[in-house]
Amino acid sequence: MDDTSKASGGRKTKIQVKNLTRSFGDLTVLNDISFNVAEGEFLSIVGPTGCGKTTFLNCLSKLLPTTKGNILIDGEEANPTKHNISFVFQEPTCMPWRTVRENVAYGMETKKFPKEKLEERLKYILDLVGLSDTANLYPNQVSASMEQRIAVARAFAVDPDLLLMDEPYGQLDVKLRYYLEDELVRLWKTLNSTVVFVTHNIEEAVYVAERILILSNKPTKIKAEVLVDLPRPRSLIDPKFVEIRKQVTELIRWW
Amino acid sequence: MAYESVKVETPLLLRILPVASVVLFFAVWQAIVDFGVVPNTMLASPTQVAVLFWEKLFVADPDGAVLSVHAWVSIQEAFTGFFLSLAIGIPLGLMMGWFSVAEGLARPIFELIRPIPPVAWIPLTIFWFGIGIPGKVFIIWLSGIVPCVINSYVGVRMTSPTLIQMARTYGATDWEIFKKICIPSALPMVFGAMTISQAYCWTTLVGAEYLAADQGLGYLITMGRRLASPPMVVLGMICVGLTGVAIGILIERVEKKLLAGIRR
Ligand SMILES: Nc1ncnc2c1ncn2[C@@H]1O[C@H](COP(=O)(O)OP(=O)(O)OP(=O)(O)O)[C@@H](O)[C@H]1O
Ligand SMILES: [Mg+2]
Question: Is the CB of B127 inside 8 Å of chain A's CB atoms?
Fold first, then answer.
């Protein structure tokens, strides 16, 4: 399925998902899914509730074994100890006993970054995400939206080969979400990361992604693929934006 | 921090009631003994106990030691047993919570020994250690270790699965997850075990001393019975109670400090 990376624009293929299948007992959740992600691409995945989006990310990050098929990063079988995979979860994942700074550093610590590089990178990331002022506070002293930013900062800090995000902004109010989406796009651009962003908010997907994969109901397949070839910063009322949003909505209505 | 504790005015009546109840309690007790409702051979009055208390501060006879020596012996035994149960129970419980091998090995034995009341070990302990301090420490340790193991185990078990998954996605090993995620997350429960364990230790101490000792507050009670001296029995009981309360308050303070240190 090399033709899936239409958005690659000549970029090198980073991730190959080949015939990924996952069942729980008799229930086939993911049914033979294949696609590629190019290096530095921002890919969104949308799909109905319960179609297996979280399961899908868990397989990609190797938290769950796959029933069939495999996932290659740079042509090698994905492996959390070898590859830099970061995961931003649906729920906040701050450790309440660590300060904001220590929380952001956790990924780098685990990846055994050398001390100087860690400190340098930590400062850079905290500045970039705007957490420098609150760096020495504890998570219970900052707002809920901050907690998700901490998780995002921690994920970007390790310079991931692959950044997986599972509806990270699902719980937040609209205004804050726009703000954090802009921030996310900025981080992605600055740090050249490869991002797979799961959501069931169509507008959000069209706003952030270069390409959108639309999943079907269970047993889940890739139903369609939509390229979002719009300049940034994007406007929610740009006719082209609205057109793509409608197109995706139509595809989803078809279930 | 920015939080200010809410001050609640306690109504006057509610502040008087506890004092009144204590005063009434002692008054009734004194009256019961003074007017012979209960004969003096069966119960001592508060004033008799107070007099004996004053005497026992300086006089070792007839039971062989002054009050402070009895108390000191008991406190030493209780704390040695207590610290040993923390030192072994907490690591054991934490490991059982995370490593299935540790759980598989230790759990069955722990569950088997747990329902046996610590004082039931006294006869065996006398065979093994005689009636000195080591035997009593052993029994106290047995009773103190139970809450340590359980709380540490449950604390690790309650670690947020998402945090563990988060650590795994960064490639953390099992040992790293245990050290950096499970243990810190279990700490509040572990500290909570201190108060419970201390209370268990103190209660068992008296039992242990009652049966096998030559010094200590529990021994004072035994001697009171042998000498047919109700004031000495009651004095022993009161000293055990008061010392227990004092230790309890101390441990609770330490626990609060530790908890504040990890700030949740
Ligand atoms: N461990 C499991 N055992 C059995 N079935 C499971 C397990 N995990 C997930 N499932 C099933 O797989 C399906 C997909 O679940 P998943 O959480 O991946 O959906 P999702 O797309 O992330 O949903 P949402 O939009 O609510 O986050 C569900 O029907 C669920 O019941
Ligand atoms: Mg989900």
Answer: no
